[in-house]
Amino acid sequence: MSVHLDPARKHDFAFLFDVRDGNPNGDPDAGGMPRTDPETGHGLVTDVAIKRKIRNMVSLLNEGVAGYDIYVEAGVALNAQHERAYAALNLDTKQRRKSELEAQQWMCQTFYDVRMFGAVMTTGTKPCGRVQGPLQLTFSRSIDPVLPQEHGITRITQTRQDDIDKGESTEMGNKHMIPYALYLGYGHFSAPLARRTGVTSQDLETFWRAMTLMFEHDRASTRGEMALRGLYVFSHDDPFGKAPAHELFSRVKVSSVGPIPRSISDYTIDVENDLPEGVTLTKVVG
Asked: Is the dihedral of CA 198, 199, 200, 202 positive or negative?
């Protein structure tokens, strides 16, 4: 088994992705504009946005496979997922503590994202407790400052014949985009927490594959062209780690070679191999 598939090891990973002429993660508090750090002008993509793409990809890869249901799913109430656990195990809501623990185990076994990311499942009349997931992601930040742009567009709105007869079949709209940006994000996998939720090597293999494909099956005109450019996994030879994550991440060096980067070729990416004893690097992509 490849070391990066071993759930009994601690893993820290860095990933690079870029966007061309698109909005990688709109901010609803800013009218849908691409997220940025207002102090530095660097672009931001939330961990929630990346997890959504991973969840969607896992669902596509494992449709109908037991143990790979998705808990946080669009259009499905979370409390309805809790009810599935109580119904499957025929639990008594009056014995709340015992039932909640049994339901929590069922949720970990049934839902991939609960097993990997964790979940707070304390709402409703049939709670399933709180699970601390072993795999966590950070916000991703662009290597260079970005310049979000807003472009006016004309949209067809032919909903009523009266409007068409009046010549009112179009309306003005807008699209937000970034000409180009390369983002760097980080993630962490805790072996002790994975043991609690029951993560397997197949779960890890599914996660890495979902990351490599998450932009390929999440196309939308608003997001432009997005692609994973690098995925580097630092695997430790024990559950608790041989070196701090920030020291390992410092070995991923990205720098621009031109004044205004407009493609991945305008960057140099170097991942140093002088690793501490007990740490192995796997370049899944890159």
From this structure: positive
